[in-house]
Each structure stands twice: as C-alpha cells, then as structure tokens.
Amino acid sequence: MKQRVILCPLIENDGAWLLCRMPEDRGVFPGQWGLSGGGLEPGESIEAGLRREIREELGDRLEIDEVTPWSFRDDTRWKSYADGSTEEIYMIYLIFDCHATNREITLNAEFDDHAWVRPGNFGLYDLNQATRITLAQKGLV
Predict the structure, then answer these.
(1) What does the mean pLDDT of the chain come to?
(2) Which residues contact residue 141 at a Cβ distance below 8 angstroms, ignoring those fewer than 6 apart?
(3) Do 58 and 30 contact (CB within 8 A), yes or no?
(4) What pLDDT is stored for residue 30 in this prediction?
(5) What is the pTM assigned to this prediction?
(6) Whole-angstrom distance, CA of residue 50 vs CA of residue 40
(7) pLDDT of 67
(8) Is the pLDDT of residue 81 over 90?
(9) Which three-class secondary structure state does DSSP give residue 89?
(10) Which of 23, 50, 112, 124 has a beta carbon 3.0–4.6 Å from 7's, enabling a disulfide?
(11) Helix H or strand E encompassing 47
(12) For residues 44 and 119, what is the distance between their CA atoms, to the nearest angstrom?
C-alpha cells in the first residue's frame, strides 16, 4: 500500500473558510466538498510543499500571509482516477491554519468548484468525511 503525507490548508478569509469540490470521476472523495491540499514531494520542506499545493490547486493570485501548524491525523483511503483505476493509500494528514488576504481563486483540474463558507453554512455542502472530521475538531460544525 502506498503511503503519502498530505498537506491540508484550512484557509480562512474574513470569517469564511475555503471549500473545494472534487470532480465526480476522480479523487479520494469524488463529487464531494473538502479542503484543498496534496502530497509532500521528496526533498521538499513542509511549508514549501503546502505553499506549492496552494499555488498549484488555487492559483498564483491567492495570497496566504499566515501559516500555522494546527493538527494531524491518519487514515486509509481509496483514490479513484479518471481512467477508472483505483489505489489504496495510507494518508498522514498535516493540517494548517492559513489566513488569506484575498479570495482570488483559479482552480486547476483537481477541483470543479469552490466556495467561501461561514460557520453555520457548512451543512449546505456535501462534505467529505475527512473534512467533516477536521471542521468538527476546529469547532466549525
């Protein structure tokens, strides 16, 4: 089984948190809303990897001015790919509080939509299990 260290930014701006929706045909949580983020690359520092993932998935215009390590956990998930293949992955999640100075998002192909969500409104979204756990631990749901 493959093992990955997953860097998860919990991005806040003006009292709202960023959620992204995965496409229906791929990802660990196809069609569901969750946090952005991804795997740490070999030789990469944790913060450099986090900032790379934010740039790759959310674009160059989103400005993150604060990054603070917050929590971690692990679990095993199945990832689906656009070609229909799947693989089981042991994931170690490193979760960071991040503050954005703006909301300028340009999604890459890993997501098909995004939303800035205030506490009390998370129930309007089909959240993936990992994000529900994170938001509950944070006291947001």
Answers:
(1) 94
(2) 119, 122, 123, 127, 132, 135
(3) no
(4) 83
(5) 0.90
(6) 8
(7) 97
(8) no
(9) strand
(10) 50
(11) helix 46-58
(12) 33
